[in-house]
Amino acid sequence: MNDDTNLIDISMLQQLQDQFCCADHLYLMCVDKNKGVVTKPFGTEEQVGFLRTQVDKHAYMELVDQMQHDRMETVVERETAQDFMKLCAVSTKVEDQLQVVWIVMGIIKERLTPEVHLPEGMLITTEEQFYASVEFLSLLSGQLFESRRNQMIAQKAVEKSSVSELAMEYQLHRSRAMTEILQMMDSDNSFEKVAEDILREACESLEISGGCLLRENTGENTADMICEYTKEPDKSILAEGQHIPIGALPFYNGKTYMISSDSIMPEPFAHLFKTCHISAGIFEPIEIQNRTAMYFCVYDNEKTRIWENRDIKFVSDVRRVVQSIMLKRIAKNSLASSYTSLEAILENTGCGIYVVDYHTHAILYMNHKFKELFSRSIAGNHLEKMLFSDRETKRSQYYEEIYSVVEERWLDVHKTEIDWVDGRKVAMCTLYDITEKKIYQKEIENQANNDFLTGLFNRMRCEQDLGQFIRKTREKDATGALLYMGLDDFKHINDGLGHQYGDILLKAISHSLRRIDGIENTCYRMGGDEFVVIIPDSVYPELERIVRDVTSIFKKPWFLKGEDYYCTISMGIVYFPKDGETVEELVRKADIALLSAKRRGKNRVEYYDGMDASSSYRRLDLEKNMRTAAMNACTEFEVFYQPIIDVCQPGEPCCGAEALIRWNSSALGFVNPADFIPLAEYLGLINPIGEYVMKNAALRCKYWNDMGHPEYHVNVNLSVVQLLQNDIVKKVAKVLEETRIIPQNLTLEVTESLAINDMVRMKKILSEIRNLGVRVALDDFGTGYSSLNHIREMPLDVIKIDRCFIEHLGEDDFSNAFVRMVSELANAINVHVCVEGVETKQQRDIVKQMGIRMIQGFFYGKPMKIEEFEKKYLI
User: Fold this and answer.
1) What is the total count of domains within the chain?
2) What is the rounded distance in angstroms from the CA atom of residue 109 to the CA atom of residue 107?
3) Do 2 and 33 touch, CB atoms closer than 8 A?
4) Residue 262 belongs to a domain
5) Spatial contact of 638 and 664, defined as CB atoms under 8 Å apart
6) How far apart are CA 773 and CA 763, in angstroms?
7) Domain that holds residue 823
8) 473-518 pLDDT, tens digit each
9) What is the distance between the alpha carbons of residues 353 and 372, in angstroms, rounded to a whole number?
10) Which of 412, 439, 466 is the last residue of a domain?
11) What whole-number distance in Å separates Cα of residue 606 and Cα of residue 493?
């Protein structure tokens, strides 16, 4: 859970602050990790003004800086100019990530002198109470953020399950539609009638306004609409759709266009959409013998339409069906041609498919996905039993959900009768794996009530159960108890041995608690290192024995990492309904008792008893202005694009571009990337800046893809700071989701030195990024160490040879040999090569002779603004 913004509830923090100040006679203010003020300072204008005269703003901002770099301390005090004034900072972290810092100011009663004149109503505290309140604030704030984090985890799990179910429903709906469309392949009707039926099925499945099939009139430079589907028949334009000039159809050029309602459109497309009242459309060419013979078009004019990748794939599959039917008719219904076309379609539908003859029980066809789903059944000769089980009937169609014991999978199965390529009646079954959906459903139930690490009930379940126990105990006029426990110095074990051993300890403690008689089903993990045990009225007489059993667990050492370690526990105990009749009141008082136990030396039990230079200036200017630019949505930063050329294609076309960040500061003017990028990495600002570049580059590439260049890709550099973030894979996935770019058209570049320095971690992260479909490039190759020893270990798609080896091509034998060697190595491990820094025709010719396809350098173009790039290459 790394979404800090969602964790911070300003209203909640303001309320906590104001109530805490009133109760403990302190003055608080909350600041986030970027030094932004979260809450308004407590007190009247006069009181706040007085405090500002006593404590300089830079003093507490320096405290916030210290908290950002201090991994151990959570409370730091700073001396003030006035002896009677105390100032400290309290940090709150979640999973070792800083969330907020509380600035605490207190006026100490014992240190006031007659010369000090305070504003009226000024809050005053004692030195002992000040430190006690600060410690309590640290615990309370940490528990508050941990509770909100757990709620967000459970909420996201529920949302994920809902998305999964919708995805399964969508797959089933599209599966049925594709089944209907596939049956039309062997129809005896005319091609126009079959195409019309397919259009109707596809458009109804997509829930769009209409579609049509356009055929070019050879030699006339016009096109006819040969069939059409409209949701509203009275809006048909088939009669007017004859002899349409090709010039009026900007998409009719052999390219695929996928234009959503929010897409940026050139003027010809905008004019067409306005004239035809279209809000979104997909236009795909149908080719016969490498010539565009027709265009398959679907469009919407009723509502805003954003095409998803699954919509685009579905339209593409339908277009292939139409193309296959057309090829089949041309081949005069050749059996071999029909089967080959059908097989190509069935292999790319995304679900398991098999075709069976029920009379002979002969399996006529199984696609690759089906073989994957039933690999065990096939290997163990269980397939026939599964296909012809008792559930099979002679119904021509049915749908059901089944569980395969052999494969350990849940599947949605849909069966229908079709005419096979040889004319006989057969059954075609489509199967979708819904095991993940089933697992999600079970996980949701567990996540709603159980702690994911220990298996104990969680805070939510604790609050539910405690409320019921309170009610029952009150009705019986009986007594129960609540044990609130916190591990002592658990942070030292986490920091000293590592979080994995801290998790092992938490699991062992949870297991031991559940083995104590009487509390097997009333143990809860509240989060972090805190546990709760509820003692119902039926077990209350054994309270002393249970407390002894719990504390005895911690008298023995825990065996961790090959050695014995001791970990003690502090405990706070409250009675119900004596100490409180609500869940909130009891938990608060138990927490107070626990805090008291920790204050008094830890490893004890407490019962609640009512306790409540010029270069320096340049750097400073850079830092200040960079922070401002980053906070202002990175609007001062601009993405330039340097073309990447495919020299092996006729005409040496552009095949994409590398996105490069430039900063034109409103205060400093143009700043060299070599100056601001290292500083951005040091300050941690490279994360928002890098995300800004990645998202904008992906959006632009998506526009290029939609506007007739589906082969264009964009390269984005990943900083070491970005790549080492725990959530980098999630951020890349978010960019793919928000921009809807085809993942394979996004290439992320990492430097060779970064990869070599931490090979194990880099392999893991880069593999996860590639699993998203994104390509990975190794930048600056040849400038690092041990390259050849590690290169084949890394999950790569592209090697980019550094410009220092291209500079002396044709002049230096070493450079020539190095580039040739890298090219041969890349071919051996099936990786593409791109050379950087090509500036002369001689360099271009040498690289091209070596069989290297992709070239980047000033010979073809410098990094340029987006307008200049698109004017030159988006044609």
Assistant:
1) 5
2) 6
3) no
4) yes
5) yes
6) 15
7) 635-660+688-873
8) 999 999 999 999 999 878 767 766 788 888 999 999 999 999 999 9
9) 11
10) 439
11) 24
